[in-house]
From TrEMBL:
<dbReference type="InterPro" id="IPR038765">
    <property type="entry name" value="Papain-like_cys_pep_sf"/>
</dbReference>
<dbReference type="GO" id="GO:0016579">
    <property type="term" value="P:protein deubiquitination"/>
</dbReference>
<dbReference type="Pfam" id="PF00443">
    <property type="entry name" value="UCH"/>
</dbReference>
<dbReference type="InterPro" id="IPR050164">
    <property type="entry name" value="Peptidase_C19"/>
</dbReference>
<dbReference type="GO" id="GO:0004843">
    <property type="term" value="F:cysteine-type deubiquitinase activity"/>
</dbReference>
<dbReference type="GO" id="GO:0005829">
    <property type="term" value="C:cytosol"/>
</dbReference>
<dbReference type="InterPro" id="IPR028889">
    <property type="entry name" value="USP"/>
</dbReference>
<dbReference type="InterPro" id="IPR001394">
    <property type="entry name" value="Peptidase_C19_UCH"/>
</dbReference>
<dbReference type="InterPro" id="IPR018200">
    <property type="entry name" value="USP_CS"/>
</dbReference>
<dbReference type="GO" id="GO:0005634">
    <property type="term" value="C:nucleus"/>
</dbReference>
<feature type="domain" description="USP">
    <location>
        <begin position="1"/>
        <end position="287"/>
    </location>
</feature>
<protein>
    <recommendedName>
        <fullName>USP domain-containing protein</fullName>
    </recommendedName>
</protein>
Length: 307
């Protein structure tokens, strides 16, 4: 049996405590909700997430191990989906986070086009080294990667063999919460991993209509507000490619202020402080953004899974 759900709040589906025959410590949805409730109700600056850490350890995640932030996101997501037995709640989560892509591969030999649908939780943007050290805006970086194409080896059913092809990715559906993974890890010829310190700037508001071909989307989504996003959170990494520390900058929708969450330390920061995570070529261990979370819409209200 899994975590029970019911009409616990706002007329929607909530997560209740598992029954007496099931160990609550093994159920991530319940422990995550309990942590959020403790964070909302406490008068302290921070709470200690011992129970949820024990839960993650119990279900197979190693403690005190270095994780890529996108891999950690996927792992926790899969655990949540597996342990929530109610399709309506799973559907709401998918509407909130899942990004749909269309991949096209055109065979160079016979021009046959293959396509397939992909679902991801983050848009991966690889931050590459540059000898010019120029700052690259997020929208320009997206355009370089997703509006362009790359050579790709794949099986062509028409040629009946592996041939070189041109691969193009296109966004086909935008979720209400758009997560962008800034991958700053590159592998050198010596097989060693290196962190890329190249500056990459990101805006507080993001207009994807500037880079998207709106004809890719269904007519009902051709609403300008569907492509307007505002920055909600930045997860930043300090350290090297093989070790380091994460902290998070999150915007409060109550007072419209930014806060830095760094272990037990929580403090108010400015937008200029957040922009310091753009990166710097002189940084060796400095704090640099690795995950951006944008929320659809231009208003000040935060995400609401119940809608």
């Amino acid at each position: 049996m899994g975590v029970e759900c019911g009409s616990d709040y706002n007329g929607g589906v909530g997560i209740r405590r598992p029954d007496d025959n099931v160990s609550a410590e093994r159920h991530l949805p319940y422990e995550l909700l309990a942590l959020f409730e403790e964070m909302q109700n406490t008068k302290e600056d921070a709470v200690f997430p011992y129970r949820i850490l024990c839960c993650l350890h119990t279900v197979g995640m190693r403690s005190f191990a270095q994780y890529d932030i996108a891999d950690l996101f996927y792992h926790i997501w899969n655990l949540l989906i597996e342990q929530i037995p109610y399709p309506s709640l799973v559907k709401r989560l998918r509407e909130l986070y899942v990004i749909r892509l269309k991949e096209y591969v055109t065979c160079h030999k016979c021009s046959h086009i293959q396509s397939r649908d992909l679902e991801v939780l983050t848009i991966p943007l690889l931050v590459r080294h540059s000898k010019y050290h120029r700052n690259l805006p997020l929208v320009s970086w997206y355009w370089c990667i997703y509006a362009g194409s790359e050579d790709h080896q794949s099986f062509c059913p028409k040629c009946e063999g592996n041939t070189a092809g041109q691969k193009v990715l296109r966004l086909s559906h935008l979720p209400r919460t758009l997560s962008i993974h800034l991958n700053r890890i590159s592998q050198q010829k010596s097989s060693q991993l290196q962190k890329v310190n190249r500056p990459l700037s990101f805006p507080s508001t993001l207009d994807l209509s500037e880079v998207l071909d709106l004809e890719q989307f269904p007519e009902q989504e051709h609403n300008q507000s569907e492509y307007q996003y505002r920055l909600f959170a930045v997860v930043a990494h300090s350290g090297t490619a093989s070790s380091g520390h994460y902290c998070a900058y999150i915007k409060s929708w109550k007072d419209q202020k930014w806060y830095c969450f760094n272990d037990s330390s929580v403090c108010k920061v400015s937008w200029d402080d957040v922009k310091c995570t753009y990166g710097n070529v002189n940084f060796h261990y400095g704090v640099m953004a690795c995950l951006l979370v944008y929320i659809q819409g231009a208003g000040n209200k935060g995400p609401d899974i119940g809608k």
